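Hi Y.,

Following your request, here is the sequence exactly as I used it, all 223 residues.
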Amino acid sequence: MEHLAIIMDGNGRWAEKLSASRTYGHKKGAEALKSVVAGALKYGIPYLTVYAFSYENWERPHEEVDFLMRLFSSYLDTEIDELVDKGIKLKFIGELSLLSKDLRRKMAVAEKRTSANNELTLIVAVSYSSRKEIINAFLKARNDGITEYDEQIINGYMYTASVPDPDIIVRTGGEKRMSNFLLWQCAYSELLFMDKYWPDFGEDDIVYIKNEYEKRNRRYGKV
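Below is the corresponding structure, written out as C-alpha cells. Let me know if you'd prefer a different format.
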C-alpha cells in the first residue's frame, strides 16, 4: 500500500456517548491522528491523506468551527518540530482562502519547513471540496490556454498532482458515503467503512487496514 486516505469521522458521536462536549471529541480526534501518523511511519506507508475539515463544515455552529480552527493552529505550533524531526512532509489541500490569514501563514511555514522530508507525506484536506477541486482544475487548465483535455492533463492540475491516487480510502464512524472527498482520485480506490469512531483509532488500526487491503483483488474498473 502506497497511499492511505482516511475520512476521520465520529468525533462528535464519540464524545456524546461519554456525555462530553463535541470539542472534547475533536481534541481526542487530534490525538488519534498523531497515533495513526506514527503507525503510517512504522509500517512504511509513504502517503497519508486525512479529511480534517470539509467545505460543507463551514455550516457547523460558529463555536465549533472556531474551536477547530484554533485546534489546527495550536497543533501547527506544537507539532511542527516533531514533524521535521521525523521526516514528515506536510501538505494542505482545499479552499484555503477561506481560512484566516494567520492560519494560512502557519500552514505555509509548516509546508516550507517540511518540504525536504521524505519519510511520509501527510496531506491534510482542510476546507476541502472535491467538486470544487475538479472545477478549479479545469479552470486553471483553461487559463493556461488548454482547449483539449484528457485525464493526464486534468491530473496535473489537481491539488494532488504530485501524489499517487489512494490505494484505499477508509471512513470511520459507521457511515458509508464519500462526502465529497477525493472523488476524482478515488476512481479505482478500494473502500473500507469501519464502525469504530475516529478518537478510538491508533497504530494497531493501520495493521488491520493493511491486512484488509492485502486481501482485496483490485480490478481497476474491470468488472
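The longest helix spans residues 62-85.

Thanks again,
Q.
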